[in-house]
Design a protein that fits this description.
alpha/beta, 9 helices, 8 strands, globular
Length: 256
């Protein structure tokens, strides 16, 4: 299945957005779990499905991710919010949620308090049959800490190719965590910053990347998380057509 994140830089009316994604050729989408454009985010699963799209996962807000590790009210409030996101997935029949474990270059140190909070969220995810995928960011040691200390079929890895290329290019993330790979965020950059370019417009070695993904046994969606920065001369439909072509090229490598 080929999929694309529902926010790729164009302010479109939401029903038209999902129709366009489907008409371009994509079979699936994923949702930013926050208000955007003209409707409450809780309506988006229905709108996407009405257009004939499979909803792969929700990406929950991450600006307060560092609070997870802090012994204060904000940390407890964030944990309660994450527990509610798991419930949202169950209520809206959404199979997975993607979340961040840290933010910025100097997050708080990971610790047992944060780990215990993650375990609480995972326990609810197990009860509700919801997958919880942790994304690789600037500080991959947080990913290692959580996955290394929690053995659950409902806790896994969201591989972000752009973050890997520009933030931690020397970490062998897929060989380390490929057995727990749940979700892909595929986009490109030139190695200097997280640019969210379409695949093949940066310097990622896609042949190696996709073959490494295939070697993990991953059989989920080839899912793009690109934006239109640098493609402003393209209409939304033109951007999606190019994005679909790039996704097909990635699929061909992965299936070779």
């Amino acid at each position: 299945m080929l999929a694309i994140f529902n926010w790729f830089g164009y302010a479109l009316e939401n029903e038209a957005l999902y129709r366009m994604i489907k008409q371009t050729g994509f079979e699936g989408t994923s949702l930013g779990w926050c208000d955007r454009n003209y409707t409450d985010y809780r309506h988006h699963p229905e709108l996407a499905r009405k257009a004939g799209l499979f909803v792969e996962y929700i990406h929950v807000p991450f600006s307060a991710a560092n609070d997870l590790w802090l012994d204060n009210f904000a940390g407890e409030a964030l944990t309660d919010t994450y527990l509610q996101y798991v419930q949202d997935c169950a209520d809206f029949e959404l199979p997975a949620m993607v979340m961040h474990l840290s933010s910025g270059d100097e997050p708080p140190s990971f610790n047992m308090l944060g780990l215990d909070r993650i375990k609480r969220i995972v326990k609810k995810a197990e009860q509700k049959n919801v997958n919880r995928a942790l994304e690789n960011l600037r500080k991959t040691e947080y990913l290692a800490y959580a996955l290394g200390n929690i053995d659950s079929a409902r806790l896994g890895f969201c591989y972000d190719s752009g973050h890997h290329h520009c933030r931690s290019p020397h970490d062998d993330l897929l060989p380390k965590y490929g057995s727990r790979l749940m979700v892909l965020h595929l986009h490109d950059n030139d190695g200097s910053d997280d640019q969210h370019l379409l695949p093949f417009d940066g310097t990622i070695d896609w042949d190696t990347t996709m073959k490494t993904i295939a070697a993990t046994g991953y059989n989920g969606a080839i899912s793009l998380e690109a934006g239109n920065l640098g493609y402003e001369d393209l209409t939304a439909e033109e951007f999606l057509l190019v994005a679909y072509d790039r996704a097909k090229r990635l699929e061909k490598i992965c299936c070779a």
